[in-house]
Amino acid sequence: MLVKFFVNENNQSHLRGLAEEFGESTNAIRKELNHLTEAGFLVKQSEKNKIEYKANTDHPLYLNLHELIRKYLGFDKLLEAILERMGNVSQVVVTGDYAKGNNTGVVTVDIVGEKLNEEYLEKLSARIEKVIQKKVEFHLNDGIPDPKGLVLYSKE
Q1: Per residue in 76-125, pLDDT tens?
Q2: Which of 7, 22, 80, 108 sits at 20 to 30 Å (Cα–Cα) from 94?
Q3: pTM value?
């Protein structure tokens, strides 16, 4: 559940959605949500007839947990490998399941930039999969990546 909420600050969910996603009973999920909310890690807000939960970005440990989850998922190694020899990278964005906090085993990454080294990308995919123990799908993009994606790097 920590991956769900702390990988991307935009992720939010409700009780039944989480129960379905994790294949657990609503009672088990409710207990965890209550514990995390009482500890201040999650905040809840009413939306229509549902209570939505999301990470409390104002919590003093939010950044620590956010970075810990990113390292747990291997995003630090992934980013380092991309920036090593990809060329003029302006942005690296995780999209798809991992951006939503779903630990499915397939990481989809959009790389935005000009004159990117496509040959390196082919070799990188196999190499990085061994390092982070997840399948990685790279997409080169010269436009605007998914706004709901998780930005790992942005050249300012």
Answers
A1: 988 888 888 888 888 999 998 888 888 888 899 999 888 888 888 878 88
A2: 22
A3: 0.78
Nearest-angstrom CA–CA distance, 111 and 50: 36
Are the C-beta atoms of residues 94 and 75 closer than 8 Å to each other? yes
| Rounded distance between C-alpha atoms, residue 18 and residue 118, angstroms | 38
Q: Which two tokens stand for residue 129?
A: 């999969």
3-state secondary structure the chain: CHHHHHCCCCCEEEHHHHHHHHCCCHHHHHHHHHHHHHCCCEEEEEECCEEEEEECCCCCCHHHHHHHHHHHHCHHHHHHHHHHHCCEEEEEEEECCHHHCCCCCEEEEEEEEECCCHHHHHHHHHHHHHHHCCEEEEEEECCCCCCCCEEEEECC
Q: What length does the chain have?
A: 156
Alpha-carbon 70 to chain mean position: 7
> If you compute the radius of gyration of the chain from its CA atoms, what whole number of angstroms results?
17
